[in-house]
Every structure is written in C-alpha cells, then in structure tokens.
Inverse folding.
C-alpha cells in the first residue's frame, strides 16, 4: 500500500488469520483515517467480517492471527486481553449487522447505554443518564428521556440500529467498525442510517470502517473503497476511481454482476 | 393442477386481517388490501417492514384468518388451516418462508420433507431426488439433514418442498432476505424460472427493490396495510406515480461512485393500531394536500389524490 497523506487512526498490516489450520485472511493491509469512511467490499466469505473482528480481538476460538494492527502507536494483536479491554468498547467500537440480536432483549436501553460508559469513563449514574439521553438525541431517537426506560423490542428495526450506534458511540470512540449496518433494514431506513453515519464521521471526526457487500451503499458514503477477495485486499482507492474505473478484474466483475446497471438511471 | 378458466388465479378484495392481543388495541395489519395474480405471472409485493406484507402472505395460505374481505384462489375462497383434510384446490397454494433455518424440520431428512409435498399432490411417479435436481441440488442430498446445508441450499430445499406439491400459486415471503448477497439473485431467479416452467403464479414478497425489479412482471407497493400502487414493473420503475413509491425508489443508493447520499423519507411507519386519518401516507408525504388529511383515496391503480381517476373512466 502507498504512503498515507494523513495520519491513519487505525492501520492493519499483513494481517493473517487462520481458523483451525484453515487460512481465512492472507495478509490484509488497510488504513482507516480520522474523519473518513473506509468501505470494505467483497462477497460473503471473502474475509470482510473477520478483518473487523480481528481488530477487536473477537475472533472465534481456535483462531490464530499474525501481522500488525496499529492503533494509537500500539499493536492490538500482541496485547493481553486486559489491556485490550481498555481499548475495545471505548476507543474502538463496533456496530453489528442485526440490531435485533446485538442489543440485549431484557435490559433497558439506559442500562445498555450506560454500563460500559460507567466502566470505561468512570462517570456517575446521573451523569451517565444525561450522556445517554444526549446520545439518543444525537442519533435522532424521538423523546430520548422516555426512550431510555424502554426495551429494544419496543423500537422498530431502524430505531434499534440507531440505538446500537448510540451504544457504540457512548465512550467517544476514535474508530467505529460497522459490519453490514444497514443490511437488515429497509431502503428508506437505510438512507437515514447512512446519513447518520456520514454526519457522525464529519462532525466527530470518527474513523469509520464500513463493511458491506452493497456497492450502492459503498458509493453513497465511503471515501475510500477496498475490495476483498479470498482473504486478500485486491484493490484500494478513492470511491470514484474504484467504482468507475476499477483496475482489478474482480472489482469489474462485482460491478457487472449488479442487478441495477450502475448508470444511475433509477432516480425518479 | 387446478387452473381457473376465467379471471385471475389469485384475487384478493378488500382484505382485512387483524392481530388481537389481550390488553392491547387491535392492530389492523392488512386494512383493505386488493391484489391479483394471474397464472404464469410474477408479482412482486414490496413495502417497508411492518406494512403488512407477511401478514397478507400468511392470510393467503390460510395461516391467518381474515376479519373481512375475500381471498379467492382459482375461484375457491381460502379458509383458515385446520386439522381436517384441506380442500385439494387450496393445496395448490404453497409458501416459501423467510428463514430456511426455522422452516425446515431439523430432525427429518430432506427427502422425507419433500415427499410430504409429493404426497399432497398425489404424485407417486416423482421421487424427492427428482425435485432436488430441479432446484439445482445433487440427488444424493435427499438422505441428508437440514443442518448439513448452507442457507442458500436450505432455501432451495424449501423451494423444492413447495414445488413438490405442484403449486398453482407459489408465495415467497421474503425468501431471500436471510441469504448471503451472492445467493440472493440466484434463488430469486430460480423461483421465477420454476414458477414459469410449471405455469404457476408467483407472489414474491421482498423489501429488496432491486431483486423485485429483476424478476417481477408486475409490482405492487404496500404501505400500512394497503396496496398503494400497482403496475408493470418497468412502468412503475420508470415513472413511479405514488409519492411513497417515489420515495422508496429514491432511497436506493446507486453504485455510480458519485458519493450521493440517498434521499431520506422522514418519519417512521405509523403505528398500524392507530393509523392516521385520511390518506395513510399523508404525515410523511411531501406533496400532502388538504384532501389527503380528510379522505382516504380508495381507488387504484394509484391510491393517491394526485392520481384520482377521471369520473368518466370510473362509470
């Protein structure tokens, strides 16, 4: 990969992961910059999600990772779990695909928003509640104070994903890893979540690693696009270049496989 | 297979389906929906989650009783499923459910589950392996259990099971949303091809508009329990007339690399237990007029006061 013009918030170099002796990542290089959305595209099974999970040390049991994941001058891969716990959830947060399963069904929204906040930041109950209400307002949940007392099942899918994003933002992270954050949602709701992600990235200077298989989503919010295939990044570059003049044949075949021709003639 | 001599294969008129929960207000999930599917036709039913698509599908195959309205399949009214033997005319309605992880019995071999469908149709000549072959799976899979397959393969098995019963109407209730992106288009195309091959009608329910565009002949857009626009897919796509259809299509991000954020439809789907007065879409509609707040547009093919049919064409 070429030299970065900006300081990268998170750099992944030569990341290799094997699960049960079977290699799933063969040396992934990625750099996510502050205030930018880095999109990671590819078919299912290409290792997109594994790359995200490796950053947070959430790889399945029996997997081995090597290479380097640099964050704030430290290598996350070599870190003992206790040190890593200070980083993950606080400095690096994750949003998962399905908000119905990533939120705890039996805890109130307040509990889920404040628990890690109180642990990582050491704030008191009242302050945590105020911050939680502020976060819900930031992700545009109507009536944030009342929403705190409710349970996830009382919200629609889009609202749940907004809450999941609020949970991820609770400790002012520097890096947000969003793994297919809109795949389970309707297009109209997806549009709202994409706008929200873009806004958070611009306003808070978040570095966002957006994992998605949807090249339309990618085109809408990502600044940089990386395309993965069989555990390798085959192409990286600015959004416009990769999606309009792909250099790698695999990227071209992905674009050609789209049901809607990429001419953008679907706007009413 | 029972084929109607005249009229559409499936005809839904003013269907109302209600969910009743003790201590809660009655939810009208389907509130006067109308829909028609002809034999050999693929109709795509689209809409946001919570608009009543799945409830409509469940009512069509008798899994949910209708509060009022009519559902006719080949001229026979659909009755709720019971323990008694089902009218053979109605076994022609077969459903493929959303989640192939829960719609297949984990403790029975795949072949035995497909054989159920064959028995329903009274088909003794075909073997489950033959049906598996038609959905593009090896014949040997009949002896295996569902857990040995991936999501895409399981959905093919669920399709094989529905197909074994010789359906005259195949209903797919979000059959691709639980699948990987790469398997989605394949399974959708497979359903279309198989329905076309057997001359059956296909009602394909999905919230993924790009896939519906790919396979449907006609498209029906549903909002809060009502069908608000129907028309040939290409026509609706090129010239959506209902403001809701426009908003839906505008929300699809296009992969052109331009970095344009898709248009957002403000607000959420209203609570179906307490629908707004007048047109159901008016609180979110950018073009709402006074009449929209007062009277509900109950005409087709576009249920919107902007597209009111001429009085002459009504009479």
């Amino acid at each position: 990969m070429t030299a970065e013009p900006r300081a990268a918030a998170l750099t992944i170099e030569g990341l290799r992961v094997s699960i049960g002796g079977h290699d799933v990542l063969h040396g992934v290089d990625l750099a996510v910059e502050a205030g930018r959305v880095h999109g990671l595209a590819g078919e299912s099974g290409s290792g997109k999600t594994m790359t995200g999970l490796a950053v947070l040390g959430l790889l399945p049991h029996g997997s081995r990772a090597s290479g380097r994941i640099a964050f704030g001058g430290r290598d996350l891969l070599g870190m003992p779990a206790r040190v890593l716990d200070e980083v993950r959830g606080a400095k690096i947060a994750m949003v998962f695909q399905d908000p119905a399963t990533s939120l705890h069904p039996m805890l109130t929204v307040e509990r889920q928003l404040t628990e890690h906040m109180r642990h990582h930041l050491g704030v008191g109950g009242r302050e945590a509640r105020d911050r939680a209400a502020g976060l819900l307002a930031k992700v545009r949940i109507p009536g944030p104070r009342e929403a705190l007392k409710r349970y996830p099942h009382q919200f629609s899918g889009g609202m749940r994903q907004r809450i999941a994003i609020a949970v991820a933002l609770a400790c002012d992270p520097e890096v947000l890893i969003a793994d297919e954050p809109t795949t389970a949602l309707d297009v109209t709701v997806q549009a709202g979540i994409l706008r929200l992600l873009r806004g958070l990235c611009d306003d808070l200077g978040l570095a966002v690693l957006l994992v998605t298989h949807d090249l339309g989503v990618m085109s809408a919010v990502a600044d940089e696009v990386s395309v993965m295939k069989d555990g390798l990044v085959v192409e990286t570059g600015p959004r416009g270049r990769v999606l309009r003049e792909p250099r790698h044949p695999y990227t071209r075949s992905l674009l050609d496989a789209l049901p809607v021709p990429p001419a953008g003639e679907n706007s009413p | 297979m029972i084929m109607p001599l005249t009229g559409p294969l499936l005809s839904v008129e003013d269907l109302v389906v209600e969910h009743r929960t003790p201590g809660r207000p009655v939810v009208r999930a389907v509130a006067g929906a109308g829909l028609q599917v002809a034999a050999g036709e693929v109709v795509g039913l689209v809409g946001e989650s919570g608009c009543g698509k799945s409830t409509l599908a469940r009512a069509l195959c008798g899994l949910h009783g209708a509060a009022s309205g009519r559902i006719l399949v080949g001229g026979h009214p659909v009755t709720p499923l019971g323990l008694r033997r089902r009218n053979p005319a109605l076994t022609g309605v077969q459903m493929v459910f959303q989640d192939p992880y829960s719609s297949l019995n984990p403790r029975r071999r795949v072949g035995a589950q497909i054989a159920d469908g064959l028995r329903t149709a009274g088909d003794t000549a075909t073997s489950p392996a033959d049906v598996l072959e038609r959905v593009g799976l090896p014949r040997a899979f009949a002896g295996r259990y569902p857990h040995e397959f991936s999501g895409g393969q399981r959905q093919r098995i669920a399709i094989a099971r529905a197909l074994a019963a010789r359906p005259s109407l195949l209903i797919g209730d979000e059959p691709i949303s639980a699948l990987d992106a790469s398997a989605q288009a394949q399974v959708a195309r497979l359903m279309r091809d198989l329905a076309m091959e057997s001359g059956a009608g296909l009602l394909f329910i999905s919230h993924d508009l790009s896939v519906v565009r790919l396979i449907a002949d006609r498209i029906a857009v549903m909002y809060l329990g009502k069908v608000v626009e129907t028309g040939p897919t290409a026509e609706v796509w090129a010239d959506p007339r209902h403001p809701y259809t426009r908003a839906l299509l505008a929300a699809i991000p296009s992969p052109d690399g331009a970095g344009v954020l898709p248009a957002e439809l403000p607000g959420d789907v209203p609570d179906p237990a307490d629908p707004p007065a007048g047109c159901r879409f008016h609180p979110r509609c950018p073009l709402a007029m006074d009449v929209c707040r007062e009277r509900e547009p109950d005409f087709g093919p576009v249920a919107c006061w902007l597209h009111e049919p001429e009085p002459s064409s009504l009479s």
About this structure: Chain A has two domains: 8-91+171-255, 98-165. Residues 261-268 of chain A have pLDDT under 50 and may be disordered.
